[in-house]
Design goal:
DNA-binding; Arc Repressor Mutant, subunit A; Tetracycline Repressor, domain 2; 218 residues; homodimer; mainly alpha
Chain lengths: 218, 218
DNA sequence: ATAACATTACGTGTCGTAACGTAATTTATA
DNA sequence: TATAAATTACGTTACGACACGTAATGTTAT
């Protein structure tokens, strides 16, 4: 419980250039080789340093990769236009876009590798999954406040229905989820949880002005 | 392209008792240690044999574990009572039950380990994921034929919406999916894809005779 | 005095495979 | 039909390869 003194430890300070060099090298190796073939020596070699420098910063390979991916994920923003259907379509795109920034053959193996240790699994969720999920949750809450969705909608279940579809396509099928499929899924779900689906549909048409959208089902 | 001659190869035949001993030992080790800590020597030791006996039968550890899990999965049956809502609730339970038979900390790592090689990924899907999915697909097809679901329902998308929820809960959250959540999800989806949701709900009540079911939303 | 740095090296564990002699079964030959 | 040859699985043992995580050492920066 030391004050801010702990921030400036004695001795030679860390070289922050090595931090970013290691994270960048990790991302490069992940892109090329995937998580399974990532070796710490290769990461260190590309960063122009060596293994001990890695272990000084992150206790395990999982922590290193988590930090690298979180760096790439960046911040997640969320639309709030007042048009529930538009927002949800956009919101799912937030999910999809977030995972498109992740190299394939990385997320699944990393999660699997983190699943055994509870603390690591929590870190994985906090750093990679919760941000986009929380963004969609904010959209749903706004929609409920507007009266667009039934008040007894179960937030967690709806979030899982939306998010799990994306995760499923990312982790299981290599089939990328298309924008059309996102719209279909949102339409189906909205029929189930909206107070007045036709009104939302109409509102969406006015808002977007794009007459080609949302006309598949009437 | 030899006839049935190839079935009976020359030389000493495989000892089928070793086959089952190895598969059982694999399941035992998976239950205790999970996929990550499974070593082939431990499997061989418990089966009363040695590593080469494994490699004579399965080319990789992944194939061995796939065969062991498929053995436990067994056959997947499907209800067809004519009550769409009942069948779907039952059908999702098929998914859930199938995965309940799988030890935790196994499916995710195994999938991750199979994800890099396309042939292995296909085997994983064929042996573990497609059977329950196909069962639910048959139910949906029946429901469409009965006129309970809209004809333009996208089968694959609906299947993914149903199945991905289960996968999500199994692989990501360690929270087991409850029967109540299954019912909620089915209700939400049916509102979106049914031709006449109130009629399905009424039919379900008559069929089940259980007045406590499906009364959460009216 | 302290701690990060680069370098080097070590012990460990598991992998996948390769020997080797033995046992069991099919195929060819006497 | 009997016997030999060929073939393949079996257990045992051992090996090289690889990456892990850590430790030791001397140097450099605070």
């Amino acid at each position: 419980m030391q004050p801010s003194r702990a921030a400036t430890r004695a001795g030679r300070p860390r070289d922050s250039q090595i931090d970013v060099a290691l994270l960048d090298a990790t991302l490069a190796v992940l892109d090329e080789s995937g998580y399974g073939r990532l070796t710490l020596e290769e990461v260190a070699r590309r960063a122009g340093t060596t293994k001990p420098a890695i272990y000084r910063r992150w206790p395990t390979r999982q922590h290193l990769v988590l930090a690298a991916l979180a760096r790439r994920l960046g911040e997640v923003t969320v639309p709030d236009t007042g048009c529930t259907m538009c927002d949800l379509n956009e919101g799912i795109s937030v999910f999809v876009a977030a995972f498109r920034r992740m190299p394939p053959d990385v997320l699944g193996p990393l999660l699997a590798d983190c699943a055994t240790r509870d603390e690591l699994r929590a870190d994985f969720m906090t750093m990679l999954f919760d941000p986009p999920r929380a963004a969609v949750e904010r959209m749903l809450t706004s929609a409920i406040a507007r009266g667009d969705l039934r008040e007894d909608v179960e937030l967690d279940l709806t979030l899982d229905l939306l998010g799990s579809l994306v995760h499923y396509r990312v982790l299981f099928g290599h089939a990328p989820i298309s924008d059309a499929e996102i719209e279909r899924a949102v339409e189906t779900l909205l029929r189930g949880i909206a107070t007045d689906y036709p009104r939302l549909l109409e509102h969406s048409r006015e808002q977007s002005g794009d007459s080609a959208t949302h006309q598949l089902h009437t």
